[in-house]
TrEMBL record:
Record localization: Cell membrane; Membrane
Transmembrane regions: 40-59, 96-115, 127-146, 192-214, 226-250
Protein name: ATP synthase subunit a
Record key words, sorted: ATP synthesis, Cell membrane, CF(0), Hydrogen ion transport, Ion transport, Membrane, Transmembrane, Transmembrane helix, Transport
HAMAP family (alphabetical): ATP_synth_a_bact
InterPro entries (alphabetical): ATP_synth_F0_asu (IPR000568), ATP_synth_F0_asu_AS (IPR023011), ATP_synth_F0_asu_bact/mt (IPR045083), F0_ATP_A_sf (IPR035908)
Family, per entry: Belongs to the ATPase A chain family.
Keyword Transport set for record: yes
Originating organism: Paractinoplanes hotanensis
Function: Key component of the proton channel; it plays a direct role in the translocation of protons across the membrane.
Amino acid sequence: MSESPQVLAAEFPPGVESFDYGSLIPGLEGTIWETAFTKITLLVWLSVAILIVLFLVAYRKPQIVPTKGQWMAESVYGLVRDNIAKDIIGAQGVRFAPYLTTLFVFILLNNFWGIVPFAQISPNSHIAFPIVLALSTYVLYIIVGVRKKGVGRYIKDSIWVPGAPGWVQPILVPIEFFQVALLRPATLAIRLFANMFAGHMILLVFTLGGVALWQAGGLGLKVTAFGSWAMAIVMTLFELFILILQAYVFTLLTATYLQSSVSEEH
């Protein structure tokens, strides 16, 4: 006899399988294209479409006295330009402001899906998307550094530790190379992924835990279910803070890496 849904909910808590979604296109199940267009892919494309439309509408007819849409777009751009690009990179930061703003709003919107009803998952909780974002930043970081200093000087400034004795450089250079070539892009991606992954798991635990307690029967368990759902609401509000913070931190670290590429010092 098969177990009831109540028993299954109690015995099988949310796991990594909660992040797997089948194809939204019928007939692709069981093929190599099964994951080509899933709910996660749809959310990413929606983010792209929403941002394009919002900024095009906001700047379609720019006015000296801005409309609400123009004011919001200019406020976001001004925030990133003045508080991240200029503060971290300096005067040269203005030319990176468009990229940093795009990065910030794209990550923010993708993170925001994690608390939107019926979506309720951030594409950034799948490691593939943070990896692509981190690699985009890393490639730009290298291109900017090479154009600024040339290949030879850029490599030297990246892995050579100024002021350290010559005899210790053979030890420090591999460490610096490992940090620049692997740790920077990896930590950039993993930080964003881990926070979105953990946030989704926490919300699943409290939400589905409440469902399991309610279905288990008994007045005491039903009362406890309301407590679990209340915690889900509290954690949703906390997740709202985290998703904004992670978009800001990713953009801030990107600006920090770009600053090290354009600066004269190591």
